[in-house]
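Reproducibility note. Readers wishing to regenerate the assembly model reported in the main text can use the exact inputs given here. Chain order matters: entities are listed in the order in which they were concatenated for prediction.
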Amino acid sequence: MHRMYSRKIIDETFRLKTLGLTDKQIAAQCGVSIFAVRHWRYGTRRTPESESDRADYCPRCSTGQLDPEAYPYLLGLYLGDGYIGRLHRDVTYLSIACCDTWPGLMIECTEAMSAVFPVSVFKVQRQGCTEVKGASTHWTCIFPQHGPGKKHERLIALEAWQQELVDARPDRFIRGLIHSDGCRALNRIRKKNGEGFYEYPRYHFSNVSTDIVELLTAALDQLDIPWKSHVKRQEPYLDQVTVSISRKAAVARMDTIVSPKY
Ligand SMILES: [Zn+2]
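Running the prediction on these inputs yields the following structure tokens for the assembly.
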């Protein structure tokens, strides 16, 4: 006779698996037998697309689908200012630094991580910012841009399947990039008669990787959002490219895509 397990327990076993625990450890932690754990993962499926087949969390290792809204956003966050580190053995974590001034970003970042994987998210408080970290064995599968050294020291090109997801939701990708490494700032210009200032908002994105800048501008082009860029020479450091979006209609469009940080 089969004992019925709750969905929650079954999901939990898969979540722990993505964290790199062994079947034995998972069984102990969830209070189920090791056979049950293995059955859920490798057992015969009732139907190929059965909802109970939750082994498909990683779309690169199996046939799972990445969340079409969360993934382009998270990719933007990762490419802008995130990094992948190693916890132990094959368990990695994705880290996104969120400025404490923007608690909304921290929440959205946490939600996006959880929508992509059943990760366990933990937060590390630093001065002025909080690092949001999610552990999984699969980050490097879905962010193949990971590699040794800094992002600007290597070629950053999207794989075809990533490009497809970005092309489907360029707005979500732009939102992620601007949230991590961009800003909406007020530009002040003194009036010609010297009395007071004109103020107008504009969006900026600065990065030393020209590849990443080009990914942003390609997404902006796709949405017909005009932009300008300039290069800041900063010897002996690397040149920094800044993309700015400042035309009134374009800023209004960006406000609907990115919305001011909160
Ligand atoms: Zn994987």
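We highlight two features of this model. The longest helix spans residues 103-116. Residues 174 and 216 are 6 Å apart (CA to CA).
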